[in-house]
Amino acid sequence: MAEVPVRIPRMGRVALPKTLLFVVMVVLVGAIVYLASSTxxxxxxxxxxxxxxxxxxxxxxxxxxxxxxxLPWQEVKIIPVSVQTVLLEDRKALIAVTKDGARVPVEVQVxxxxxxxxxxxxxxxxxxxxxxxxxxxxxxxxxxxxxxxxSVIGKYNLVEIVPKIxxxxxxxxxxxxxxxxxDPSVKAAxxxxxxVVKSIDIPKELSNAILRKLTAQQEAEAAKYEAQREIIxxxxxxxxxxxxxxxxxxxxxxxxxxxARRRIIEANATATKLVLEARGRAQAILxxxxxxALAIKAxxxxxxxxxxxxxxxxYYIKLVELYxxxxxxxxxxxRITVIAVPGGNTTIPILGILPLLGQG
Length: 360
Hints:
Elements lengths: L17 H21 E4 L3 E7 L4 E7 L2 E4 L5 E6 L3 E5 L5 E4 L5 E12 L3 H10 L4 H22 L4 H4 L3 H18 L7 E11 L3 H100 L3 H20 L8 E9 L2 E9 L6
Antiparallel strand pairs: 1-4, 2-3, 2-5, 6-8, 7-8, 8-9, 10-11
């Protein structure tokens, strides 16, 4: 069988209408534009404020990092919410006038940040719609810094500032921070991180002159203090000697008074002793006389004689006793003999000491 060739027609390109192609291109471009105008990106440390101009209000606040959608006609404002630094130095340094009229440049640094809260960002953009940080710097921070520097520096003379720069710097920083924290135009939106006074610029020659003057004053004060101390020391030494002398005199007075009291006590004791001895002797004599009286009375009653005669008899007896004490051997055997010799109408006793005759 013989082959029969068959011819297949070739298909050509399909030509699209130019109108359709244009429409497709417009749609693609519109889609790209729509996508570009309906998305936005927020980086770290930023906040995006979405504003709807037709509604005339803020519809959203977005904190970065973020990628968000919005309606094409809505506007987006990016506000930095990271820490912002305001430097008032060099040509922007604040010029303050001291109490004695000297002009002193002061360099200040303020760091702040927008509070990371939607309400704070909304308040800030409503208060400062354009360039919020620039306006905060100019209208709030610079104004408050000038007020703080002028107020604090104006309290001191120039010579007082040099030795107190650190103290005055801290005073300025504390006052400025207080002003910013309490400022009603920003306190609802920002937080003060720190305030630093970087320098209080006093010309070196002037500073050295003031320091020399202060050093001389301090040396004079030191010399004055040393002289005062020497005077006080001398006065204290004199008082010490006076006190010691007074103490010695007082001790001598006390010793003399004690010796006088001792002698008075001894004299009183001696007098008391003498009085007691005298009393004792008087009592003894009294007892002796009483005993003699009783003995004489007994002799009167025994011998039936008068008191006078009885007294004689008693004293003769006492005499014999005395002799016996003095001459015990001679009178060892002596005896007393009472001889009554008639004498008129009365018998008078004769007393005699008759030794025993037997010694020879």
